[in-house]
Structure prediction request, 666 residues.
Amino acid sequence: MGSLNQLRIRSVAYQTLLAAALILAAWYLSANVVENLGQRQIASGFGFLAREAGFEIGETTFLSYDAADTYLRALAVGFLNTFRAASLAIIVSTLLGALIGLARLSRNWLLAKIAAGYVEVIRNVPLVVQLFFWYAVITDLLPAPAEALNPLPGVFLSNRGFGFPTLVALAPIELNYPVLSGFNFSGGGLLSPEFAALFLGLALYTAAFIGEIVRAGILAVDHGQFEAAYSLGHSQRQVMRCIVLPQALRIIVPPLTSQFLNCTKNSSLAVAIGYPDLVSIANTTINQTGQAIEGIAIIMLVYLTISLAISGFMNWYNRRIVLRGNKR
Amino acid sequence: MRVKPTLQTATLLFTLLSSAHAHGGATADAALKKGFLRCGVNTGITGFAQPDSNGEWRGVDVDFCRAVGAALFGDARKVRYTPLTAQQRFTALQSGEVDLLARNTTWTMSRDTSLGLNFVGINFYDGQGFMVARRLKVKSAKELNGAAICVQSGTTTELNLADYFRAKNMKFKPVVIEKLEEVLNAYFAGRCDVYTTDVSGLISARVSRAVNPADHIILPEVISKEPFGPAVRHGDDHWFDVVKWTLFATIEAEDLGLTSKNIEQQAQSHDPAVQRFVGVKGDFGKMLGLDNRWAYNIIKQVGNYGESFDRNLTPLGLDRGLNKLWNRGGLMYAPPMR
Prediction:
């Protein structure tokens, strides 16, 4: 009893000491930062967030913005732009990845080889190169707005993006068509070349990795399960849907979470092709205000929050599908 | 892509995390000890800073770095160049990655104060303009309502552009890209109707990048004042003086008629102003903590301001305009060396 108490007291003492040392180190370092910033007369603090940003942003999601708005609103617009590109890319890459994984396991030789070729090419070329490629394809190959391609009524493809009609009212159905006025299209919806390139690049790149995860998950299901199911007279489709995929999902979900996180973080490469994501807006903010430490802290905090939210959700989902007996 | 700025912020953070240390001639001493000067320049803009086919950096900003090298070491070659994007430049200087920033950077009040920098003077007077494809038949910036405009991020250009369109009650779609190379690719591919930057940058891009330069016109409106100047960090007054007087020496030399060709013979001159300049009379080098032949070395090895301009910018078709000497209708003026 006495020795146990001693052990506990010692452990508490060690932990208190460690915590105190960490706090002291953090205090020492931050005090130095503040003093050095002051000595070099570099502005610090988050007061700049309430000031007028003064720069324009090319495209916004949900939130309206103009140059008279604050830095905080500009950063919020950047965050929503990141969210739009990353969430769409995650959804599409998951669907595409599942198809690719299944195709690689297909008995159809050509389909399996095409899927394998896709995975090897896409996975082994750096993402930023692929983004430049898609951006160049869109801006170099598509015509100017005046000569825009018009494959369907109201749909326009040009190097200014992909214009399409939007629904204004349901009954009676009323559409808002894009119309060429002056330099560019106005009205309707428009996907910018920057968004299109980022979305395509991210979705195709992530899908290659997800395809491999799906394939590995299916292959990891015990072969006896296939044999047992076939011997019971199930069709191939039934075996896949009812027996194999539910078991494979348990193996697939944890690495899939990492891919979702990667996809979100990779969206910060948007800055290379001019899509106004969080990093792009934060970089401009840093440059106009000179407050690099605060700007980077904001970027880190936002990505951390998104990543924790994604992994929190995926962990919850994982707990739901895990075998009762395997629950850890 | 994001590695570099993040690294710089990390360097900055570490410099700031380390305990406060006193300055005083520290930058010059450190450079002398290392044996070279670290100069932050543009990633590649013809006429200001760009490596030539032999990998030698050329341009007026590069010449300025070489001039500081000549003043400090007596050897203009003792300079190492760090190419910086518009985004990276201030962090690189703040964190001590470069000793000096000579990167066609506009001197503004906020940069001079809250960024912790000191601009030493102005080595190029410029203003922001617009370039459009000739086939669009645009004659004035006032006709640009609704245009897509390519612009490099992290510049005063971005802010002036928004200001101009707000004042004129017009709308535009900015396409903001970090790397100059990629901005130009986007403009020349037709992603934007307009490319905007300082007029010198427009001329440089048109000459060096357009398939047919005559297909692009620069609109008459100049919407801002863009005085470019070299900058140093706050906190080292000695270094500030050295860099500032290097700039003045190149201007003063042109005023005195001293060039890289004639300075050796002019060193024999009886003109007291020239004698002070070349270091025969007075102790002007010592006042800066340098050799008395510091200014002689600058002119002998790099040349005066006008020579640098003629070598780098005149071939692009750039007029000297405001960058003429004060007594020839321009704004270039150096305080007296006495």
